[in-house]
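Ticket #4471: complex job returned nothing on first submit. Input attached below:
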Amino acid sequence: MISALTHLECSACGERYDADVPQNLCRDGKPLLVRYDLAAAGRTLTAQGLRDREPSLWRYAELLPLRDPANRVSLGETMTPLLPLPRTGACHDLDLYVKDEGLLPTASFKARGAAVGVSRAKELGITAFAMPTNGNAGGAWSAYAARAGMKAHIVMPQSAPHVNRLETMMTGADVHLVDGLISDAGKIVARAVARGGVFDASTLKEPYRIEGKKTMGFELAEQFGWSVPDVIVYPTGGGVGLIGIDKALRELQAIGLLDARMPRMVAVQSTGCAPIVRAFDASAKESVFWENARTVAFGITVPKPLGDAIVLEALYATNGTAIAVNDEAILAGQREISESDGVFVCPEGGATLAAAIALREQGWIRAGERVLLINTGSGLKYPDVPYAQPPLLVPSDDLPMSP
Ligand SMILES: Cc1ncc(COP(=O)(O)O)c(C=O)c1O
Ligand SMILES: [Zn+2]
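Support reply: We reran it on our side without changes. The output follows.
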């Protein structure tokens, strides 16, 4: 089980870069993607061989960038469950599944990017990094940095969920709050990096976070018995998870573990911040900065994703779509999955149900199609989300029971 990593390649111009020294963006300012010797990977990464491997993202070692397992920084990245949502699905004539990323360390899918990103940073000799975040990535990268004995400088909006602030501080990061959005936090990080001494670990400005997030794609393909659902609905901020899932499925195709059929990829955003949706509707190649971004699904408040061109390309190439849902529908979706099927999803997970319902009503999703929702985090991380009905105190000695 050794990494088949060969080099880095610009997502826009194709220029090659050495993977064994720290790298950020291409000369043209575009993200770098990690490339592998797929023929070599395919010789040992087989369905049969995988049966005996540990149930964590590290089981896909050939298609991960870490060269030496001794550099692995781990908090126990379990494979996350793929669960049918029978009651929620029946209610909307949908064959519905959820991949519940809330079970990972730090209770969100950001643990995947952090586990692989921090491990590879350690392998390349990096000892300190800085990054902007909407919260969960900061929590995850801070925890993995602590585990690695590395220094994390985290910059997040003042309005980010309190739990994210708490977890970054408790795991020892140097935390800064900004009166603004993740885009403002990004500018502060860029200035700090320019002064030197600290590595820029911003989304897509370092190449390895995608490699961690793509393991969602490996897992779901394996859990669906080496096939893919018809539709995957992804709550899109920076879009890294969507890019990663798309990349993973194509790598599995290349090594013969999947046939050529791709799922139709859906990017769901909030009506309060929908740059990808607006670009998709205009058949554009890139997005335009979204002014006054605001939504209850804080993780997807990204006014201008750096990887917008790659996200849009994945939507076009898979005959997918992009859709915006409002905050009311997001909260209703969160509550419905939680109440009907027992999976306490985050607001971003709620957005995926809202999108699936709307797309089914429009006929874009047809009856009987398998639809996978990606729940990117645990609902437990959002104690401030408004409850429809606060729990009642027992008024007397009798429990007022509803049927
Ligand atoms: C819970 C949650 N869902 C989704 C996202 C968006 O992730 P991506 O950058 O992969 O689009 C985030 C990012 O902060 C998040 O915290
Ligand atoms: Zn380039």
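The chain has a mean pLDDT of 96. Closing as resolved unless it happens again.
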